[in-house]
Fold:
Amino acid sequence: MARHTLLIANRGEIAMRILRACVTLGHDFVCVYTTADAQSGHVRLARELGGPDRLFRINSYQDPSEILAVADASQATAVHPGYGFFAEDFRFARRVVERQRPLIFIGPSWTLVRDLGDKINTKRIARAHSVPTIPGSDRPIYDEMEAVELAQTIFAFQQDQGIAEGCVLVKASAGGGGMGIEEVYDLDKFRSVYRRIRNYAKRNLSDEGVLIEQRIFDFNHLEVQVLAERGGKNAVHLGTRNCSVQSLGRQKRIEVAPGFDPASLTYAFDAAGVLDAITRHSVNMSLQVGYDNVGTWEWIVTPRGEPFLMEVNTRIQVENGVSGVTSRIQGRADGADGVDVIAEQIRLGLGEPLGYTQQNVSTTGVGIEYRILAEDPLDRFTPCLGRIEAFGWVAEPWLQVFTQVPTLQLGDEPYEIPMDFDPNLALGIVWGQSLDEARARGVEFLGGLVLQGTDTRGEPLRTNVDFLKNRTQTLLHF
Amino acid sequence: MLNVKEMLEELNASPYEEIEIRTPHTGVVEFVGLAPGDRVNGPSGKWLERPGTLLANLTREKNKKPICATQKGQVMDIRAELEGRFVEAGERLLTIRHFLSKEEVLGRILKKALHLFCAPERAKYYFVPEIDAKIKAGGEQSVKVREGLDMFIVSRMKRETPLSYSGPEGIIYAVYFQQGDNVDGGQPLIGVCPESQLTLIQDVVSRVQGEWEERD
Structure:
């Protein structure tokens, strides 16, 4: 395979994982960073593995011209967007591949990013391919009167169903990552919420379109990790993940693979059947739309075991590692850490064939991913800014930690948490033969984690470590 | 009590500021032949629609971006070694020594005279839509503020929370931030003038107008 130079158009731990995958696959890399990120791990790692020539300071990660200018100056041949920023921006993906000096976009074709990037369009596509979706609008609503009428209909429908406390979900149609979503329990308050979400969408997403649908309570949030090769003719899945432990802002905090564990837990429905149905629907839809890279099909499963497709993420996700750690590909020399999904994404993005079928893929054990953040779960998960003074963990063969924060001891130069980005500090992925073993290891990892710092007000830095520990005991219960 | 005379003397002792001109983004630098000691002009026109003196060009993705003087002044030093090179964002190109104008001196003194409502923490700040609309329609001095009034939206790490004004009742005399830009904790957002002090402020304005000599 030809040697490529990948420009990593991202930061933090994902940039570090892409960087390591490049080295594993024998490709060169170029990293970008902003002034606020000069201390970040990806800058240190790029300097360590490639030297200062592989690093370029830019004014913003969100300026496409910056990324492409650096790509040209460094003679990069491909761009990896990571997650966030340009990962789901079809205009950027198009610009990368259709310029005078075309580059390879490590992600799906821009037309797929466009078509599946919009939740409502995805809903229409899914319905066209007989994939079950959540009851509600299947096009963006721009008119307030129409929105109110739709909300009235959904509240009336829930009343007919005997649901004591009806609820409507108002979402920015172009939003994601848990942002721009609110629940409405009272029709009288609908207008103000609708206007707030519309204003948020207008300000942050440049599209006022709002999606209104029934809020399904007590659901589980499952995902299917799909890998598909260029051309879209072959696709496999790497099993399911359960992402039901979330913050109040609907941002994921713990992910578990597989999505349910019928071997050790009892469910009120056929959990194995649900997992089978969502993987089947996801791969079939991927093949039908010609999906051609790594992607995630996100599902809601109701307490009665009804799965509804929520959206498709046309990118690598934060939680890809937990699917990787529980997957094995027959005949491949994947290590104890399982499949490196990012390396697979790069390989597929550069046009290599998948090289295996679903029959060659197996899943083993249980993986748990913890997202460690500087936030206060007791205060609505409010982000906490400040500096980290001590940071470290006990290395174990069943543990992977991805972080941009340097290992620190008290007395070392502290690490300032940059305020321009999510306060993600680290991802810890544990693996066990069974759910019980994985949970025990999770608690052991979190218990041995050293994380101390001071916030901007001079008080101890608040983190979500205790929250993660407490929620470990009830993982996958439904 | 504000000692305007003392403040003017202090400013007179060092009546300029040094402005570093840095690259706004990556690109290839091409200077336009200025030398140390050359005088340059800042942007002009009613809406500052005429750019300042051209200092250099920065070419990125075949787009040539002119880098112009942001203030009137004198070129102090030029990093000629960057000529024709691809540079990173934030690279210093040259420095301009800018002599303070009456308005700038007035702004500095007013910061000491007005009640400053400061950013409680580093974040992006926006006026709430109602206040924003009033300022756009009638200018900043058309808005009256009082304790507890919801004035700002604080956007931090992609989460937005409201922020109420605290301080004396009065009118917004000056706005010190650009909506959407990061503001450090402790930096002033607005300067509020209580109505009882409007006369004092007018006096400060007229003294600066009369006593400050512009050198450039």
